[in-house]
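Blinded run. Sample ID left blank on purpose so nobody reads anything into the name before looking at the predicted structure. Input follows.
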Amino acid sequence: MSRLCGWIIRKARVGKVLIVEICGNNSKPYVLALREDRDKELYSIAEPLDIGSAICFEGTLAPEQKSRRGTEYVATKIEVYSKPIEPLPVDIAGKVPALLDTRIKYRWLLARNPVEKAIFKIRAGVLKAAREYFEKNGFIEVQTPKIVAAGAEGGATLFKLQYFERDAYLSQSPQLYKQMLISSFERIYEITPYFRAEKFNTTRHLNESWGIDVEQGFINGVEDILQTAENLVAYILDYVRANYKDELEVLGVDLPKLTPPFKRLKFTEAVDILRSEGVEVSELEDLSDAAEKKLGEIMAEKKHELYFIVGFPWTSTAFYYMREEDGVYTRKFDLDYKGLEIASGGQREHRYRNLVEALRNKGLNPEDFEFYLEAFKYGIPPHGGFGLGVERLLMKMLNLENIREAILFVRDRTRIVP
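Blinded prediction complete.
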């Protein structure tokens, strides 16, 4: 005997049988088939209930599973906890498609729908898988400040706030802090929000998003970091495929099995490929979204859904990336998935004097980063890491059209509620 709870998302009468679908925490609904002549008491309780009513029932699995929509139960008791006081503003059954703006506004309510719920159950699974991978591989979870005195990615995308008598900012990334911690920890990770005041309104940008951040020390080179990134992503997809079969079925998604290593593509090679296709790109600037998307199409034709772009030019990177001997290129990489950058990272500069010089070359004042630079005076080893965007990974895993579909409460240029 089980006790299961949820919300009524659909009711239908078929002759003398009342079909009730209830969505709880499972992606597939619970289904009750109540006969008016056989289940008189339960029928009389369920028949007048509106869509959206919150109920619990006690029952057992039906010996014959007739429903194609969910898991059928034989109920012995129904308890009604709450009824809607007015009609629901959206169709939680999913019969009537909602516009994206409506889905975003009522995501907390639409999550009663199996399709919407499946996205966020898989999101939870992604984070669970990431933690499992890190714990198995000797990483320690840390937490870094979200109110900071200086930005890791540059001043143009900082959210400024008043911190008592001084200015402060919301953290764009834990970059500076996780590097500082490599002074004492060999391998660390953090699952963290990012706050970036980017004035974009595209299908791939958010102003508050979540990332899986990694840093590891005592590396032999950037290849160590590439291997951690690809092994993490492969582990996550394997975990989701093995543990979220119902959710993937509801979403109509067939996740491929990934086998590292992923393709390594030099930045200069990417430029040549794009130019050969008539796409104008610079040798000294990062790839535009359009160029990135086009490259994804080209790589897909070559059977590479996931691939690294390695060796970015110094002019396009943050100050903390290690430069190659030529001074032109760096040990920075991006990990792209179907034409979208889902992770960015590389080997960092761990030599104090080189780091101070890099700050000055980027037009930054080393005095503003004194708290960070101090960590490089006391024996910090060669290190590197990356940040993996949770919503971007989900977007490509689940074939979502807009990144806003991959987060429960959206924060972008126009949304600060709910």
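Unblinding after everyone has recorded impressions. The first helix runs from residue 40 to 46.
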